[in-house]
Amino acid sequence: MRIGIVGGGITGLTAAYELAKRGHEVSLFESEPDLGGQAATFPVEGTRLEKFYHHIFTSDREMIALIEELGLAEEMRWLPSKVGIYYEGEIYDFVTPLNLLRFRPLGLLQRLRTGIVTLYLQQFANWRNLENVTALEWVRRNVGQQPYEVIFRPLLRGKFGQYADEISMAWLWSKFKHRVASRGPAMQRELLGYMEGSFQRLIDRLEERIGELGGEIYPGSPVKRVIIEGNRVTGLEIESTEGETPVEHRFPLVIATVPSFVFLEIVPDLPEAYVARLRQVEYLGAVCLVLLSKEPLSRIYWLNISDTDFPFVGAIEQTNLIPPEAYNGKHIVYLSNYLSRHDPHYHLPPQDLLTTYLPFLKKMNPAFNEAWVEELWLFRADAAQPIITCDYSERIPPLWTPVEGLYLANTSQIYPQDRGMNYSVRLGQRAAEIVERVEKGETL
Question: Whose C-alpha in 72, 192, 275, 300 is 20 to 30 A from the C-alpha of 246?
Fold first, then answer.
């Protein structure tokens, strides 16, 4: 069967690969000139770097299996994580249970209670019992206000910005389960995975294999409209990059891997009830300011910012995971924030954003000097994070839509797990599996 796929991120590429392996004629259309979605890369110091920070965990089974299947396992590097919290002018290591016991911003009893509750969450199985309570309420009740403000709220703020206090406890539970699984037995030190030369190697190999299997990929080809006739999908209308008449491609089946609000823009005349369901899921955008620096900002790879007056929520120093030698001795820092697309700060140009951040960078490292910054890049993603509030599962749209032959697979459907490359791979595989079942006449 001929299948059209909208979106060339990890989910779209995985779905295309899986369906091509099954003998389908796949055509993938990506609006941007580069594939990879939020995992797309750009050139830095003779190599490639993700526009938005990326790594994987040892518990990311689907991602690791795909890397192995594509013959890229030897290009993975597994490195000790360096996680920390910045709180009231100090940076604290926050990787091991011993780090928690030494965490002075909390009293000894608060530290012990935090550790006990963390262990409890790791063993807790029924996340649905946590879905209708906010993390704020649950942690306050079971751990206390101060641990919430200093430890848990920065974690939530680092993903959900201004919505941190509204997030479901089910999401926070999934973070603990996932991270602990990545440590292995006996709570050994966490390892993080990164690919030699960036995850561009994975994107390139997927593109190569899809082509070898007979699939076609069209970067820089925005989909203007999904063509529907008599409540059945019949194809895609692709915008011309040179102002010519849009081109129609006929497909009896289409998988869209775009955010829900983009899906509503390209699919006309959907049933009102279904449209309302898609609109129930809101997104935050991500803003990443990337600095190429002569000197390091800190010793930490992933630094959660606990001080709420900071205009960014995380400082991810790539060269505290991958040595600076990979980037000609330079240091790379992502300054991350999650904002509404309507927030004025979301649209600031790079230099203005850096100017806003400078006083806070100097708080983190009094020696920091703007002259250290040799290059500056700014990347935005309009649909970086669905807002996971209570009873979120009731609002998740299914992969199949009311239109026959039309499917939707996007990050709003990754739950209760956090969105990331592993779950994007899983979602792409799931979309391919559903298409196969439909082809066989099975009932979904």
Answer: 275
Q: Is residue 107 part of a domain?
A: yes
Give the integer Cα–Cα distance in Å for 161 and 312.
9
Question: Which tokens hold the place of 149?
Answer: 């403000």
The span from the CA of 341 to the CA of 283, in Å, is 9
Note whether residue 315 is domain-resident: no
What lies within 8 Å, CB to CB, of 187 at 6+ separation is 96, 97, 180
Domain membership flag for residue 180: yes
- Could you tell me the residue range of the domain that residue 181 belongs to? 96-188
Q: Distance from CA of residue 304 to its chain's centroid?
A: 16
Percent of the chain surpassing pLDDT 90: 82
CA separation for the pair 163, 167 (Å, rounded): 7
Number of compact structural domains in the chain: 2
- 18 and 5 Cβ atoms separated by less than 8 Å: no
Distance (Å, rounded) from C-alpha 254 to C-alpha 246? 18
pLDDT tens-digit map of 16-40 = 999 999 999 999 999 999 999 999 9
Per the CB < 8 A criterion, the answer to whether 160 and 388 are in contact is: yes
